[in-house]
Design a protein that fits this description.
alpha+beta; N-terminal domain of MutM-like DNA repair proteins; Helicase, Ruva Protein, domain 3; 4-stranded antiparallel β-sheet; 6 helices
Length: 286
């Protein structure tokens, strides 16, 4: 699933190519693509027609397009394979095209939602006073948000009494961090994924957040991480951060810091990649 850097790359593309354009019509080609919109496909398309998109927003992994002067937004859930593509009108329809949105202008491009696995979708939601779709009002701010509260995050870690990777993936504590960037930040911080959060000091928490931000900004600079064709930006281009990964996917390869072979362990239906020397496992409780 795309994490913060990938979603931010898409948001920037929408800001350039879709913001402030008026919808001429919307066509829903697969009902699952709007299953989170209870009123159904026809209602979704009707409510978009004639509306003007504002500047796209993002919180963590969640992306939305506000509808100006309506108090509503189109929330995009990319799932495992969702893509928002800006294509010329005459471009052939993608095999897994689910929604097509045309605009009332002469720019010659349209917005397409393509989703091979149909886990993602678009839906309409009322906005909160903060300007967020109400469906994601519970999601915490992400570490690149200027209003992210480091002290509150540290206190929450101490109270939570969990392990550090679980905390990084808890969207009610910090949003936007998924499996890839959690492993990368923990490797940089020399922290084992099962390290209890209760023992983290403020300087250690601050250091970890610095690594989270650094790895996300590095990924943003090269368009995010693409392991296959399922994640692309709005122009269909892949990101290149997979070439710079220090931990994720490097099982058996030498640690870039100490040369010890990297390990992979099953973790919460996922995998955790780490260096057994640089990231010492915590001692089991006596």
């Amino acid at each position: 699933m795309p994490e913060l850097p990938e979603v931010e790359v898409v948001r920037r593309g929408l800001e350039r190519w879709v913001a402030h354009r008026t919808v001429a019509d919307a066509l829903v080609l697969h009902p699952r693509a709007v299953r989170r919109h209870p009123a159904g496909a026809d209602d979704f398309a009707h409510r978009l027609k004639g509306r003007r998109f504002g500047s796209p927003g993002r919180r963590g992994k969640y992306l939305w397009l506000p509808l100006e002067d309506s108090g509503q937004s189109v929330l995009a859930h990319l799932g495992m394979s969702g893509q928002l593509l800006v294509q010329p009108h005459e471009a052939p329809a993608e095999r897994h095209l689910r929604i097509r949105i045309r605009f009332a202008d002469t720019l010659g491009t349209e917005l397409r939602f393509v989703d091979q696995r149909t886990f993602g979708g678009l839906s309409l939601h009322e906005n909160t006073p903060e300007g967020l779709p109400d469906a994601i009002a519970h999601i915490a701010r992400d570490p690149l948000d200027p209003l992210f509260d480091e002290e509150a995050f540290h206190r929450a870690l101490r109270r939570k009494r969990t392990t550090i990777k679980r905390a990084l993936l808890d969207q009610s504590l910090i949003s936007g961090v998924g499996n890839i960037y959690a492993d990368e930040a923990l490797w940089r911080a020399r922290l084992h994924y099962d390290r209890p959060t209760a023992g983290l000091t403020r300087p250690r928490t601050r250091e970890l957040l610095g690594h989270v931000r650094d790895v996300m900004n590095a990924a943003l600079s090269v368009g995010g991480t693409s392991f296959d064709s399922l994640y692309v930006n709005v122009n269909g281009e892949s990101g290149y951060f997979d070439r710079s990964l220090d931990a994720y996917g490097r099982e058996g390869l030498p640690c870039r810091r100490c040369g010890t072979p990297m390990r992979r362990r099953p973790w919460m239906n996922r995998s955790s990649y780490y260096c057994p020397r640089c990231q010492r496992a915590p001692r089991p409780p006596s």
